[in-house]
Amino acid sequence: MQIMTVARKVRGDDTRERILTAALAVFAERGFDGARTREIAERADANLGLIKYYFEGKERLWKAAVTRAFEELQEELAAGADVPPGADAVAALEQVVRRFVRFVARRPEFMRLMNDEAKRDSPRMRWLADRFVGPMTAALDAQLARARAQGLVGAVSPVSLRYIVLGAAGLVFSQAPECRYLTGVDPTDPKFAERHADAVVALVRTAVAPRRRRR
Amino acid sequence: MQIMTVARKVRGDDTRERILTAALAVFAERGFDGARTREIAERADANLGLIKYYFEGKERLWKAAVTRAFEELQEELAAGADVPPGADAVAALEQVVRRFVRFVARRPEFMRLMNDEAKRDSPRMRWLADRFVGPMTAALDAQLARARAQGLVGAVSPVSLRYIVLGAAGLVFSQAPECRYLTGVDPTDPKFAERHADAVVALVRTAVAPRRRRR
DNA sequence: GTCTATAATTAGATAGAC
DNA sequence: GTCTATCTAATTATAGAC
Hints:
The structure is a homodimer. Chain A is mainly α. Helices cover 76% and strands 0% of the residues of chain A. In chain A, helix 5 (89-106) packs antiparallel against helix 7. The radius of gyration of chain A is 20 Å and the shape is globular. The N and C termini of chain A lie far apart (55 Å). Chain A binds a DNA duplex through residues 4, 8, 11-12, 15, 36-38, 46-54, 57-58.
């Protein structure tokens, strides 16, 4: 970053942030190929040339926007680990699930973007998998392994289970516009999201720990 | 369709079919905006001009490809209704789920395309919802209502339940390339797909009919 | 029916003034 | 830092030969 007055720095950082936010939205809506940098600039109320100034180009802008989204997710998942270390592995798993649901309810763009990139083998998919998805599911899989060690396992393959949970948790939000049009229900409404989280958590409980008594 | 010799008709129909198949694949991979008609023509090993000849343009080609995909899905779901009319509503629901899983395992493009269009409010989304998604989920919701009438209901909202089932069933397949890269497992392998169907069906059973004994 | 060639539009990138 | 203006390359659409 070059030398600049404080005022300029603040203003510039703000513009940079607005571009990042707009970029996440547009990339999520249109996919990388379909997204137009002009639309991103317009939504950010910024000049087209500033994309090159701040991010060099479309590809790097995409990476910056995705990185920011994952940082937010990681904050959400880490915030106040209110499940004690010695506790039930299933309880810990449930908390992760609940927080994930809350996050995608708040940021449905995240789910949309992931859906879009995970569906074909590309350098961007591998970049995402190596940098974020792999490490983060390693953590999830560790939770599953703990549950397994405590004798709480369904016969479900861990691969199936992971995508079942992610899909069950996320699809209403990634497809929110269709859901609104078809049912009149707005999934991003926090009250709906919380009840949806309940449903997914209940599901995880029965799937992972079939022997456990329902509360 | 204009008058033509039999040979020409056959050859033309074949080209038309190849374009439709390629179109579904490319639209699913890139999204409508990102898809290029040139790529569709190349994959179909057909001339670019034939897209106008057969389908008038990109939009109508998309509609034709989607219609064909839904017809296939409907065939899959309708094929040999081997659940008798008087039978358990949960059993009927499970069969629908199992068949849906088999279908998306065979045609992951379907799930990808739906994910892509359902994520924003557009004329195409509404066209899909009015023409296919609405009517087909009306059938699914009827199954759920039957289960409800038989006293087999979880407290889950039908909206949540629908997207939970679709997401749990479909995400591994729509994200198959990521899954392959990350875990080495190929979800489209029929053996995996069948075990995944087992898992989703077990899940539906506990979610919809929590009182039911596990087999 | 299938092809070549091209028109019209739009994309990402960028030069250079301020 | 932000803007206008423009370049180059791609895109869809299409006219017209065979």
